[in-house]
Amino acid sequence: MIIRYTAKFKREYSKLILEIQKKAETREKVFRLSPFAPTLKTHKLSGDLEDLWAFSVDYNYRIIFEFLENEIVIFHSIGDHDIYK
Fold first, then answer.
1. CATH number of the domain residue 68 falls in
2. What's the total number of domains in the chain?
3. The CA-based dihedral angle spanning residues 47, 39, 66, 61, taken in that order and rounded to the nearest 10 degrees
């Protein structure tokens, strides 16, 4: 699996506290092995974000992403529930 990161994702990630960054890295490793692992709580989004998916970093933080062809994934955003707005 190839994961690409948008500029927005990189900017949001850099502003997170170190503890959340480390959790995100751990979850990304799980995601690379199994995008639908139960611990990730991967789910399809709806409404304006209906083409996107999200998985949990922890109780408050999520990563919004998109599946593309040939096992390519784009990480669009990381943050708390406000990223859905």
1. 3.30.2310.20
2. 1
3. 70
